[in-house]
């Protein structure tokens, strides 16, 4: 029997994989028939390898629930687009290397007409790059001053609060660091100057226009080398404790009450706080660049993570490439600006096809209050470079009027590398998890040149 044949359809957009092999719980998969089975070469359906990773996600000690989002695709250990709820167990695998990676959305008073001039949009790109560092290994010290020890200590312990932000504009002020005496691995501490830098890969800063002609800016980045090196440290140490190869990231789990578990939780939270502060610093620089070039005003609308473990209702909830989705009335939103609407959910698509802002519905409880974090990759980076043509890709971007900071469009981040965002959003709405409030079209994009 194939994996797909094992699935039980609950409703449109919602399947269940019953316990099989080593699974401790059933897994809920939020997929449309199109995303599951595919429709031609541009929509090939779900990779077979995803199912064995879902089994792995549902097999960890302490697991109580597993949900898989519509943008899911093969990762390591568990699929990208997976939510795992556990009781007393921490899963570095389900937080990943880029701890705290996520999004910031900036809302402006500008209109599409205000940013219609390509020369001005080019000047904005240059102004942003002047203010922040971009690319793999880039540090804020290349653009601004070094981060002193006191500032760094405050940021990793208090995140957005250290910058004077509250949970009206951020998913959380900070995640508490319960033991200030924990030692930060030297390899991670050495990356503190990357605070305020964008990074490479799929990280970006993008100017967008919504269906009503309002200008927004979305940015995507995480905890940079600081979080990556914390994750790497615990993958090695966790493997040693389990008697596994140091490359066995797929199977690492930690008892939260052990010494190693407590150390991981505290350092994971420091990386999460670093990531929030990193996004806010970049966001404020981007706001300043917008105001300098175009006039008007801009401010941070919302900030949210999609690679993170958080405590919710007494359990650990690990979201690996998945976004928290609390609807109106959720207890965690009490006394915030979003109590009566639910908080915004920021979903990047691709630099060609655009992005979206969603708000959760009551049905999000079915998916552990989570939805997708993007549209989902369908071509690997290597495959994209082999099968996509540079001239055709650049021409599409030019015809769409989308400016880039790079000479050529990065093939491995172009539109065909990702699933159809509208198919993914349709599935989210079909399953009753969230509704689309805004669909955003890109007009300028800043990428880290790897």
TrEMBL record:
Binding site for Mn(2+) 1: 98, 203
Matching SUPFAM superfamilies: Hypothetical protein PH1602
Pfam families named among the record's database cross-references: RtcB
Enzyme Commission number(s) from the entry: 6.5.1.-
GO biological process, one term: RNA processing
Catalytic activity: a 3'-end 3'-phospho-ribonucleotide-RNA + a 5'-end dephospho-ribonucleoside-RNA + GTP = a ribonucleotidyl-ribonucleotide-RNA + GMP + diphosphate
Subunit composition and interactions: Monomer.
Similarity comment text for this entry: Belongs to the RtcB family.
The name this protein goes by in its record: tRNA-splicing ligase RtcB
Native organism: Stigmatella erecta
The gene coding this protein: rtcB
């Amino acid at each position: 029997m194939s994996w797909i044949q094992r699935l039980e359809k609950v409703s449109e957009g919602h399947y269940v994989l019953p316990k099989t092999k080593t699974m401790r719980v059933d897994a809920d998969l939020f997929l449309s028939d199109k995303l599951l089975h595919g429709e031609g070469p541009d929509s090939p359906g779900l990779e077979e390898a995803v199912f064995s990773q879902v089994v792995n996600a549902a097999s960890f000690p302490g697991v109580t629930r597993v949900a898989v989002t519509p943008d899911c695709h093969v990762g390591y250990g568990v699929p990208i687009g997976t939510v795992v709820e556990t009781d007393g167990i921490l899963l570095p695998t389900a937080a990943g290397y880029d701890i705290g990676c996520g999004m910031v959305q900036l809302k402006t008073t500008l209109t599409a007409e205000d940013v219609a001039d390509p020369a001005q949009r080019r000047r904005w790109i240059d102004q942003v790059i002047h203010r922040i560092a971009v690319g793999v290994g880039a540090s804020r010290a290349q653009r601004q001053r070094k981060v002193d020890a006191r500032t760094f200590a405050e940021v990793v312990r208090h995140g957005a609060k250290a910058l004077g932000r509250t949970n009206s504009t951020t998913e959380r002020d900070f995640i508490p660091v319960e033991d200030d005496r924990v030692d930060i691995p030297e390899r991670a501490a050495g990356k503190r100057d990357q605070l305020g830098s964008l990074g490479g890969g799929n990280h970006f800063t993008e100017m967008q226009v919504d269906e009503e002609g309002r200008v927004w800016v979305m940015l995507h980045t995480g905890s940079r080398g600081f979080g990556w090196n914390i994750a790497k440290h615990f993958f090695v140490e966790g493997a040693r404790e389990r008697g596994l190869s140091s490359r066995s990231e797929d199977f690492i789990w930690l008892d939260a009450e052990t010494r190693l578990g407590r150390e991981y939780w505290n350092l994971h939270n420091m990386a999460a706080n670093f990531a929030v502060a990193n996004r806010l610093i970049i966001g404020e620089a981007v706001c300043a660049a917008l105001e300098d070039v175009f006039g008007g005003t801009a401010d941070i609308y919302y900030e949210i993570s999609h690679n993170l473990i958080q405590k919710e209702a007494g359990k650990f909830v690990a979201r690996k490439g998945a976004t928290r989705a609390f609807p109106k009335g959720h207890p965690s939103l009490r006394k915030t600006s979003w109590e009566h609407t639910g908080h915004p959910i920021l979903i990047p698509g691709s630099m060609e096809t655009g992005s979206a802002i969603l708000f959760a519905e009551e049905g999000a409880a079915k998916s552990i209050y989570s939805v997708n974090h993007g549209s989902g990759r369908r071509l690997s980076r290597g495959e994209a470079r082999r099968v996509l043509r540079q001239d055709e890709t650049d021409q599409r971007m030019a015809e769409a009027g989308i400016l880039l900071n790079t000479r050529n469009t990065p093939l491995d981040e172009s539109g065909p590398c990702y699933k159809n965002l509208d198919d993914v959003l349709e599935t989210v709405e079909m399953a009753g998890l969230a509704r689309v409030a805004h669909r955003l079209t890109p007009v300028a994009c800043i990428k880290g040149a790897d």
